[in-house]
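INFO batch 0412 | record 1 of 1 | parsing
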Amino acid sequence: MDFLYSFLTFLQPGVLWPSLDAVRPILAASVLAALSGVLMRNPVYARGAVFGHPAFFYLGVFILAQVVSVHYSGTPSMLKEFAYWQVYLFFVVISLLLIHDASAFKRYVWGIIAGGMVIVLYGLYAVQAQLPAAVGGRAGAYGMYENHNDYSFVIILLLPFIYVFWREQRGFTRLLLLLSLAACITGMFLSLSRGGMLALVLECVLIGVFFTQGAKRIGVLLLMCVIGTVAIGYQWEKRAENQGSSYTAEDAKGQRTELWRTGLKMVKRHPLLGVGSRRFGEYTRRYAEISYDNWGKNSHNTYVEIAATSGLVGFISFVFMLWHMFRELLKPLIHPDYAWLEAVRTAALVSLCSLALRALLDAKPHDWGFYVLCALAITYAALRRALENNIQEPGIDNPSLASAARPDAVPSGNFLKI
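INFO prediction complete | emitting tokens
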């Protein structure tokens, strides 16, 4: 169920096949997953280790801030915001219930990769088939990832996980993962997202930093710098060809700074709870002279968007959630039988840093990536403590730990070296 739940979350079956929406497939999967997590799972750590984690606490405060931020519109509006944002809170809750040991953690990540790759491949198909999702010939998928900028978020999330699993696997699975890496990079180019390409280059540099050593690291970083410079230049050129003089890089810069200044004015006027969750575009013209092209648009910056719409309460809780995730993912796992888990921890760290940068150039506090990484960071922290405590004791007393330590679960060689 751990694989299926993360897979279906990204697949969005009710959106991909609208005929299924009436049966609420994600709701049904969530209920089954929650029951499975509560009734059939015996975690190797105490539940308090995950539900008492600071990142989970600040996630709850962030969701609450979104709901309370529209208090001036009355209870119906608050209930509407709760209905929108609660899916992210309960997604993390169910994920924490499902990921009960290291094996479940690995299956969950496989589900993220499989579901996310459906999104990536759909974007490539949309360009080839000239589907409406490929607006202006730019790659986009469906649902949350229909817009070409939003589409780049899922690629940034997936790439490090695909990379570390590619290093571990052999045979046909390894080939599929290599093709998935190629599809992600192709998808980023076809999206023509300039901010997405900047984040992708950073991500590749971070992969070079964390997964190589010594002279190889220097060589890889120099190569990444050269390739990254060429890739950024290519993306700028192709985007200019795609939109011509109607929306140049200078236009994008000017529009963003205009919106960011407006967001800061909102914060100054309403510092505690902002102007209301998801209401940035609705209220911009009340706070500044906005050019016509910017009417109704979001702030194009996740952090400005959060601060403007849910104030310092929403902004601080969101940043603190990211900070505690970052702190946990910085802590390596010291256990001889779990090199693969240490590698996945590093992949999650790279993904988090890259998404945090990507969020500077697009407003997407509702992206699944933040909440998937929240669940992974919290469960990794609990697993790390359980495994390290266990290795200090003679033998393996917990059956879940024992089964996860089978020789076939351990990759050959040093997983963190090329």
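INFO post-check: The CA atoms of residues 166 and 173 lie 8 Å apart.
INFO record closed
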